[in-house]
Amino acid sequence: MHRRAALAAGLAAVCALPTARRGRAQVGGGWSPDRPVRFIVPFPPGGATDVWSRMVGEAMAVELGQPVVIENRSGAGGMVGAEAAAKAAPDGHTLLFTISPFIQSPVVFRRWPYQPLEDFNPVGKLGTTPLPFCIRPEIPARTLAEFVSFARGKDLSFGSYAAGSTGHAYAQLLSDIEKLGMTHVAYRGEAPMLTDILGGRIACGFHSMTAAGEYIRGGRLRPLACTGRNGIPSLPQVPTFVSLGYPATFATAGFIGLFAPARVPAAAQARLAEVFAGVVANGAFQRRLLEIDTIPGWLGPDAFRAEIAFQLKEWSDLAAAMNLTVDG
Q1: What is this structure's pTM?
Q2: Domains, in order of start, for the chain
Q3: In the chain, is it the N or the C terminus that has fewer CB atoms within a 10 Å radius of its CB?
């Protein structure tokens, strides 16, 4: 089944499911949206973040009693959309659905159009996903070691779904460790990067299984290793970087989460978190996530805020050590 067809089937199944919280008293003190809720997604349609946002939005809409509208606003490593969300009315009707570049991009761009911890209130964390490092299949390499041997002395380019993202930093780190001298090409999201690697315009890069899994399983991309410590559920034969002896930095897991502008009413934040938690706890929804190699891992607002603070410090240290900066 093609990815789009699979996604459509998954969304239909999610919408038909009762959420875990139906019939309970509302934690949010009776707050409910009085018009459609908007998810700002700071990356283009077709990438993993867009797919996750639509899955979550469809499921939350059932319980909230209002549609969830996805607004894709890409640019500057996700900062354009995040800044728009930070400046939105803090009434619970505009939320930011995003991933790790939310905290990474300001560090490497060295400008802060928003403060992740001050300008947003976390609603909750959906989970994470391992990222496979993929090459074009015509490259004569079946293992990461073979790719390293092939790439030395060649002027190869690697892509990233956002300047300053995990995919950018980890590919650059691989290039630096192995002295490959690869050139970085930044994209405004995963979908255009995927188009270019399939079209032969770049040699390699980190992708999500959510967006690229169909092409990996179809042999149009070749995964050589992945981030994280536990591997890719549907591709257990793909080793992790740390299992191959690379630094523990490659084991760091990013996040997928939902945020509200700061000063959102406590009742609205609580209700949104309650509904989001119910969606993530649903067994059928979790199975759908695992089918696209996304690992459910709910964190509520306070625990998610603590994780964001930790990852922001960790990322700042890594960027400083690598002298990782982006002009723009």
Answers
A1: 0.85
A2: 3-129+254-322 (3.40.190.150), 132-251 (3.40.190.10)
A3: N
